[in-house]
Write a structure and sequence with these properties.
Strand content of chain A: under 5%
Largest interface: A-B, 34 and 38 residues
CATH architecture of the largest domain in chain B: Roll
Number of domains of chain A: 2
Distance between the termini of chain A: 36 Å
Strand content of chain B: 15-25%
Structural class of chain B: alpha+beta
Order of helices and strands of chain A: HHHEEHEHHHHHHHHH
Number of helices of chain B: 19
Shape of chain B: globular
Number of helices of chain A: 13
CATH superfamily of the largest domain in chain A: MetI-like
CATH architecture of the largest domain in chain A: Orthogonal Bundle
Oligomer: heterodimer
Structural class of chain A: mainly alpha
Strand order of the largest sheet of chain B: 1-7-8-6-5
Radius of gyration of chain A: 25 Å
Chain lengths: 355, 649
């Protein structure tokens, strides 16, 4: 059982009281929950198929060739057609499709021509289609999912590295601090965007999407952990001369124990307040890279790619840019609200008075 | 005190530097290469010969290109200013050497300067006079004789003489110009130029091909008087000097605004302005080209009326951004025109690297042919406007194969061929796997971000046949480089094809361009061969049998034999199946404001751009009228015109 210290509980209570941030947090959590089970909501694979007395759950299973359901072809079943066929046959077979029955990559045109189509509930393209008739809602959903999960992994990684190195610098000080500071100064002057572009241009396309995202993540983390160390270092410097650290050292605590058990909880407030902004920075960075064409290879759905299409078709298909832009605004606003609320609730001035 | 001394010192240093520079420039300006050129002529007596008119063969049949259809319209009016755009400010005003082969070159070389004679755009291999008033062909020996028009003048007033043609060889074979392609071309194509008098010359070809007259008559002289200072520093020295031209347009120094715009001005007293084939062309007085980098902004400028014409080749532009219902079109301010032309076209398609594992298997290649759904791309993405390409060598008249048709999208046939190659079972994602567990997946590399959508459509369709296409979109240079380095699995690229008589086979298919020493003496595969990079054999196709045909083709000067060989080679390539033909665009479409006028028939048969032959004109009065009408909301008859006189069925 997780036992929080009373200070933290107070802070969390305070956070709940800041309604704007709290509800933003709840909305974001719901969104994350939806993203995790995204395939059940937006997908061209059926949720459930009942065919000739057998049950099928294609969403997470291996693909079912058309022949499984009495189609003549051996490629993946088109479940929308299957549903239509079952309805016509009226033989007790049925298909349950997700809310949005399209995958983000399939070209589905109602006219036979691949062009942006305006939002239409009748066609179940709730946000319309893009320039090659792919469902925008599906692309937006999966694009945002990638961006958000990417941002969270990015934040976690930069924090782990930034905190460890920053705390070490502050705690050990001296030559170690001096050297590492210079290393960081040099390292942080390497233009990060160019490095990503250069590295990404030499990655073979044969790598899977997941590998590519991991590489992108690694590269971005490599160039982004530095800013965290500054805060961590100064905070640690401040804390390490306090009496409680001296006492801990007197009773023989190891350095690791002192840093992680005693100092870290005391500097957490500073770190936590930065977290939402790191998330925002990561979302913006991956969107910008995709917008510039250096992100994930087509046809991977992404916010940046949608924005790019949107700006190219500003006049003829405004629904592309509004969806992508709207999503970005909502996402970034939510995170910012959460960030503000965290900062406020973790603000020490509320609880202590320095004398 | 110290500061004063320092300032004085720096003043002295500055003055000294200026003096030094001034000295250097002055020294450079007296450079005169007349003697160097003469020495060069003397050192190459076979190439440069000097004879007299008495040495001219007596039995020559002189041609004047008479009786060909006129070019342009007699209604054309001279005058007006045309506004256009360029994507980048030109990096140089030179038209040879580094950075010169850009899109801007058409404005200072390709479309505006004159060679000896030009190929008539409506007929097959008939020529009309340009710099030469008449010419004669010696078919047997591959010699072209020409008499220059005595009226011909450079734009700076100097007469154009045979010396400028002699100098052209010196210039283009010189190391100074840093242009290996030109060096090589002028070294291997021609064996002799002879001066008979100031206006009579002959040029001899190294090998006499059926289209030798085209190669010789297309020679464009270089102004010897202008290149007197030619030397090691050519690239810098001539970077921003406008080369005197044989054509109608010049660029004045004050019209070159770095980073912003370039303006061309028509020579009012151009020497050829009243000649039969030029009288109704080159009508616009001033052509202003503003730098607009973003393609969407170019379109917006056009819609505002800042630019007179805009290419509407993409379905997106023709149907979505400027539909017939657009107020400017419906009210007749902007006219839309489709013009069907006839010419060899860029060979868009999938070039498979046959040196790669799996792609070296003919059955895999055949499977890929049947699994590529170009018909859907053409129907749905291009809206049926484009057509399917059938071979990489379409558009060469009788040299193109009459019956070969590209393989259609056919899942069953694709699966059949993949099965023959060992790919029989589908993995959990529907992609075929062979017994060794290899997935049937290939990367398509392209340098055309605008066509990335096409590849995503192909990808979705290919998955139905159990084939995975991974898509790699690079920028133009990087994409091209990757294919040239033969690092690709499958490349989606196209090479521009000129209006030549027959296709180039050696470049694309000869083993010389695939491997170093591809075969041993007896025709068997050399086990130590290495892939040759930076060639146009993008399929790394090496076949001893095909090599024989290509060698025979290159050596041949018999049209019938070459035609027969051309067909046989295309059949071979079709069977080999390493190129999936994509699409061809057999027309161009433009939107132009009402004040841009074109001849009744719009344009001639072969141009790929409406402005290529400069047959249009600008009616300034109509411009004022149209803009006033647009402000007042007064409408004209909408004009959406289709010119299909040259449409191939």
């Amino acid at each position: 059982m997780l036992r929080l210290n009373p200070q933290t509980i107070k802070k969390l209570k305070r956070f709940r009281q800041i309604k704007r941030g709290y509800y933003s947090f709840l909305i974001l959590m719901v969104m994350l929950g939806l993203f995790v089970v995204g395939e059940l909501l937006i997908n061209n694979r059926a949720l459930v198929v009942k065919y000739e007395g057998e049950w099928y759950f294609p969403t997470y299973s291996a693909f079912h060739p058309g022949t499984d359901f009495g189609f003549p072809y051996t490629y993946e079943t088109n479940y929308r057609e299957l549903k239509q066929r079952f309805a016509e046959e009226n033989s007790g077979n049925w298909v349950l499709l997700p809310l949005v029955p399209y995958s983000p990559n399939e070209n589905h045109s109602t006219t036979g021509i691949f062009r942006p189509e305006a939002p239409s509930a009748a066609n179940q393209h709730y946000l319309g289609t893009d320039s090659t008739s792919r469902d925008i809602l599906a692309r937006l959903f999966y694009g945002t999912r990638t961006a958000l999960f990417f941002a969270m992994a990015f934040t976690l990684a930069t924090y782990v590295i930034g905190i460890a190195i920053g705390a070490a610098m502050g705690y050990f000080g001296g030559l170690f601090d001096l050297l590492f500071q210079r290393v960081i100064e040099i390292w942080s002057n390497v233009p990060f965007l160019y490095m990503v572009i250069i590295i990404f241009s030499v990655i073979p396309a044969a790598f899977s999407i997941f590998t590519r995202i991991s590489i992108l993540l690694t590269v971005m983390v490599l160039f982004s952990w530095t800013s965290m160390t500054y805060y961590m270092r100064t905070e640690t410097y401040k804390q390490k001369v306090r009496d409680y650290v001296a006492s801990a050292r007197l009773i023989g605590s190891s350095n690791t124990r002192i840093i992680f058990k005693h100092i870290l909880p005391n500097v957490l407030a500073t770190l936590v307040t930065f977290m939402p902004f790191t998330v925002i920075a990561a979302v913006t960075a991956i969107t910008a890279l995709d917008f510039l064409g250096f992100g994930l290879p087509p046809p991977t759905p992404s916010l940046g790619e949608l924005l790019k299409q949107g700006t190219a078709n500003l006049r003829t298909a405004p629904w592309i840019v509004t969806s992508a832009f709207g999503t970005l605004v909502v996402l970034l606003t939510l995170v910012t609200f959460i960030g503000e609320a965290i900062r406020e609730s973790f603000d020490p001035k509320k609880f202590t008075v320095y004398k | 005190m110290i500061r004063t001394v320092r300032n004085m010192l720096s003043g002295v240093v500055l003055a000294a530097t200026l003096l030094a520079c001034g000295g250097a420039t002055e020294q450079a300006e007296v450079r005169d290469n007349t003697q160097e050129v003469l020495d060069y002529y003397a050192a190459h007596p076979d190439l440069f010969q000097f004879k007299t008119l008495a040495d001219l063969p007596a039995d020559l049949v002189w041609e004047r290109g008479e009786g060909l259809p006129d070019l342009g319209s007699p209604d054309a009016k001279k005058g007006g200013t045309q506004y256009g755009s360029i994507q980048d400010f030109p990096r140089t005003l030179r038209y040879v050497g580094p950075d010169s082969n850009g899109a801007f070159r058409t404005w200072i070389l390709d479309d505006v300067t004159l060679p000896l004679a030009l190929k008539h755009p409506d007929t097959d291999y008939d020529f009309y006079p340009a710099l030469a008033s008449e010419w004669a062909l010696d078919e047997e020996n591959g010699i072209v004789y020409a008499r220059l028009d005595p009226a011909a003048r450079w734009s700076d007033g100097e007469a154009i003489t045979v010396d400028d043609f002699m100098f052209m060889f010196f210039f283009n074979r010189s190391e100074y110009i840093v242009a290996p392609w030109y060096n090589n071309y002028y070294n291997i194509t021609f064996s002799n130029i002879t001066k008979y008098d100031d206006h009579t010359l002959s040029v001899t070809m190294n090998t006499k091909k059926p289209d030798f007259a085209y190669q010789a008559l297309d020679l464009r002289p270089e102004p010897q008087h202008f290149y007197k200072e030619l030397g090691e520093d050519f690239v810098e020295r001539y970077q921003w000097r406008f080369v005197p031209t044989t054509g109608p347009y010049v660029i004045r120094d004050e019209d070159l605004i770095p980073g912003r715009s370039v303006t061309l001005t028509r020579l009012q007293d151009w020497w050829a302005k009243d000649k039969k084939y030029f009288a109704n062309r080159y009508n616009v007085d001033r052509i202003v080209l503003n730098v607009i980098r973003d393609a969407n902004n170019v379109f917006e400028s056009f819609k505002r009326g800042d630019i007179d014409q805009f290419g509407l080749n993409l379905a997106e532009h023709w149907y979505e951004k400027l539909p017939n219902t657009d107020p400017d079109v419906a009210n007749g301010y902007i006219h839309k025109s489709v013009f069907y032309n006839q010419r060899p076209r860029p060979n868009y398609g999938l070039w498979m690297n046959t040196s790669r594992p799996m792609l070296d298997d003919q059955n895999v290649r055949l499977g890929i042919q049947y699994a590529s759904n170009w018909d859907l791309v053409i129907e749905s993405f291009f809206r049926g406007d484009y057509s399917r390409m059938h071979t990489a060598n379409d558009g060469f008249g009788s040299f193109s194969h009459p019956t070969i048709r590209a393989r259609p999208f056919d899942i069953d046939k694709a699966l059949e061929h993949f099965a023959l190659a060992g790919f029989t079972t589908r993995g959990p994602d529907g992609i075929l796997v062979n017994e060794q567990g290899q997935r049937l997946a290939f990367t398509i590399t392209t340098g055309y971000p605008t066509f990335a959508d096409i590849l995503t459509i192909l990808r979705e369709e290919a998955a139905k046949a159990g084939l995975e296409f991974r898509i790699e979109v690079l920028d133009q240079t990087a994409g091209w480089q990757k294919v040239q380095e033969k690092q690709h699995d499958i490349g989606f690229v196209a090479l521009g094809v000129g209006t030549e008589m027959y296709a180039r086979f050696w470049d694309y298919y000869h083993s010389d361009n695939a491997y170093d020493d591809a075969f041993l003496e007896d025709g068997s595969v050399n086990p130590d061969r290495k892939i040759k990079v930076q060639t146009n054999n993008m399929e790394v196709l090496a076949s001893y049998e095909l090599d024989q045909m290509i060698d025979q083709f290159v050596a041949s000067n018999d049209v019938d034999e070459m035609r027969e060989l051309s067909h046989r080679m295309q059949e071979f390539v079709y069977e080999y199946a390493s190129f999936v033909p994509g699409f061809v665009q057999d027309f161009y479409r433009i939107g132009h404001w009402r004040w841009v006028k074109y001849p009744e028939f719009f344009n001639h048969k072969s141009p790929s751009l409406a402005t290529e032959l400069h047959v249009h004109w600008i009616d300034e009065q109509l411009k004022q009228e149209t803009l006033a009408a647009r402000r007042a909301g007064q409408a004209f008859e909408p004009q959406i015109r289709v010119y299909d006189q040259y449409r191939m069925q």
